[in-house]
Amino acid sequence: MLASSIFEGAAFYYARYQPEYPHELFRSLSEHLFLTPDSRVLDLGCGTGQIGLGLAPSVTHVDCVDPNRAMLGEADRLSSERGLLNISVIESTAEEMDLGLTGYQGATIASAFHWMDRSLVLETLDRRLLSSGKVAIITRVRDETTPSDWWNRIWDFVHTWWGGYFPAGRGDKRRELRVDHEAVLRQSTFSNITGSHIPYMVSWTSEKLVQYMYSTSKACPGVLTHRRDEFDEQLRSLLHKLSPADMFIERCHLDILYAGRY
């Protein structure tokens, strides 16, 4: 699988339709990573830069790393629009970053660790972070969706659409993780782990949900290709059945693993 192809065609939608992270996340990151105005932060698998954009006003510099050039283009556009001059975008996988990227107080990986060679990434972070530096692994978890358990119904629809699996780029299948993130961290030098739990809520319309799906590895334009119109029509029909009032509520939380060295 080519990491840059997992989200082929998704960048435009990712920047506009992925839910914003709650402000509490950035307060939590600053507190647990011991960030100061002099800190440098590394954001791996940054996508369109949601984490980096949120942290940049409170630190001296953020390096946003992603293998997808289009995603980085959106991150660069957003940072310029917001007048943030202390963000750099770097086209690379987390495993193959330039050796000169060092001296970070914190490294963040949000909803991307599962795509990476996790043990290798932690090994390289051990050389890139300051002795006091920590890693933050951020995972978004859905607790409840109303009405009609709509998220699981969409999930079932997409799973059936692809013949019983989820794609990971054109012609590839999403890998299964046999070991959870915390277990991988405990086997690394970053085995001093604390957790944080941040609840929040997202409201959707059917139009936003359709556009959101185009931002995901399961239904981005690069994997749907010529079947996009068919997918769009069937998804919209399903959403109308699930909520004729066109209102979808998602109650969710962020699980954050903060990992430092002993």
TrEMBL record:
Keyword vocabulary terms for this entry: Methyltransferase, Transferase
All residue ranges annotated as the Methyltransferase domain in the record: 41-127
GO molecular-function terms, A-Z: methyltransferase activity
InterPro entries: Diverse_substrate_MTase, Methyltransf_25, SAM-dependent_MTases_sf
Example of a GO biological process term: methylation
UniProt name for this protein: Methyltransferase domain-containing protein
Species assigned in the record: Bradyrhizobium cajani
